[in-house]
Task: structure prediction
Amino acid sequence: MNRLRRALAAALLLGLAAPLRALAAWNKDAFGAKTPGDALKHLGVSGATPSADVHIDAPQIAENGAVVPIEISSAVAGTNALIVVIEKNPFPLTARFDFKEGALPFVKLNVKMGETSDVRVLAEAGGKHYFATHEVKVTIGGCGG
Amino acid sequence: MAGPMKMRANLGAGFTDVRVLMTHPMETGLRKDADGKLVPMHFIQNLTVKVNGKTVIEAEISQAVSRNPVFSFRLKGGAKGDKIEVSWLDNHGDTAAIETAIA
Result:
């Protein structure tokens, strides 16, 4: 009887833990950070090196900050993640993409920019970080409304 | 709320080009409605891309991704008929998914 109860309790805990784990896969501290430095600290990034192998293709001037197209990729061997930081946004960390076997470190997406800012892209490879920046001048911001 | 998704996956030169469109308001929590009240945050937080059931890309995104997000990804190699699945999870716990075969 005791064993049965313990087994039931364990099953219940597992059942509860599974959805919690699924939701926890979002780095609240990093995404909630208000400065690029804090965001990167919460992602465990320290001492990134500038690299010409990290590519950012984005407009120099964006008339509408609500939709700024950016294309990011990395030619650094063994890149397993790309991180996008929009330095002057209220919450600078915009995205982190983790690439497993079978995917190339390439993403095209549209982002919102509150004002003219550097867009910083970091590539993670072998536990090290490499970055590039690209300034986008924003005519009308896209965060408020 | 969670509207339809659209996706196409085409073979390129040595890679597969995946383009996916999601219907989502991506509210930042900073925008005001017509009555001047702040619209609460509502945005996609997690994305997963799978090929034939195997996860190849996992992403965490913020409210700074534009409304009705569009993403392009590139997968190594690929063959016609391979199944690509993309799913998302937002801060309300809502999810949506779409599956297509490489054309």
